[in-house]
Prior knowledge:
Elements: H1 14-23, H2 43-48, E1 77-84, E2 89-100, E3 104-121, E4 127-145, E5 150-162, E6 170-184, E7 187-196, E8 199-203, E9 213-217, E10 220-230, E11 235-258, E12 261-287, E13 290-299, E14 308-319, E15 322-332, E16 339-348
Antiparallel strand pairs: 1-2, 1-16, 2-3, 3-4, 4-5, 5-6, 6-7, 7-10, 8-9, 10-11, 11-12, 12-13, 13-14, 14-15, 15-16
Amino acid sequence: MTMNNRRDISKLPLWMSVLLIAGFTAPSLHAQHAGAFSRMGFGARGIAMGNAQSADLSGSASPYYNPALAPLTEGQSVAASVSTLSFDRNVQFLQLGAPLQDRAGFMVGLVHASVSNIDGRDNSGFHTGMLSVDEYAGFLAFGLKFSSRVSAGINLQLFQSDLYEGLSAARTIGVDLGLAVRVRDDLALALVADDLLARYTWDGSAVGGSGSEVTDAFPRRLRLGLTHRRWDDRWLFAAEIESRTASATHVTYEPRILGDGAARIRNESTLTFQETRLRAGVEAWILNGFALRAGADQLGKDTLGTFRPSAGFSAEQPMGELRIRVDYAFGWEAQAAGQMHFVTLRVLL
């Protein structure tokens, strides 16, 4: 590359500078952890924009991404989403929300993920029946405006995982805390802490004599988001950096001689993993009532097999006093797991 072709990073838009810097600082950690379904995103619009929604103050972003967005919602609204994924998986989203006077707002919602047609077999390999797995995440987000430029919120979540009919469902409560700041009319920042306190506890003794109690903690996530509006607010550029910390229990067995016989000693240690993820998205209202979107999740220097591009569109049509909006998103899953299709119907009352 010659000197004439180089760009001065100080002349780039702030959102693009964040992308370039974070793209060269992200280490790799791609293991799944408890509650992975709840981190897929929420609704077709967010998924089409790579889930970079924490600082989107337009009123269209779900407070599921940042509870500080709750008082900024466009008005009373109902939204429902359906999806198709590979390997007999499904995800549905539902939310209902409204502003409260001029300074507050709330949003309630539900995420349901399922896997069906699982071939169940016993220890001898004989077919025992078809199994299914269901997971749920219900949430209640509440936000408050401290001024015309600053808002904050809290999101209370209830998670439930039904893995097997002989195993009691695991339930846990999680807490999200969010802050959003409109730095300028065209620039906003956000900070979100996700899944605080959330952890599943499983009791395997119910399905086998050798089973034991296992605790599976959700990863702790800290996200910093940025949005930048251009060209009469018809274009929205969004970026987000996430620091994710997760812990896992590592068990090893060591043979020892105790007295006159041999014994197997169980050693247990806790491993802590940290990774940085980057996501970005863009939205362009190219016509009145019609927008195109594109995004990418899990960007970074080590994205082989985990890079998740996405795209979509939105069409809006007034019907009397109602505004009907249909969002569509298409994306690829990490590790070549297949394609995703999401459709969201939103009614603004």
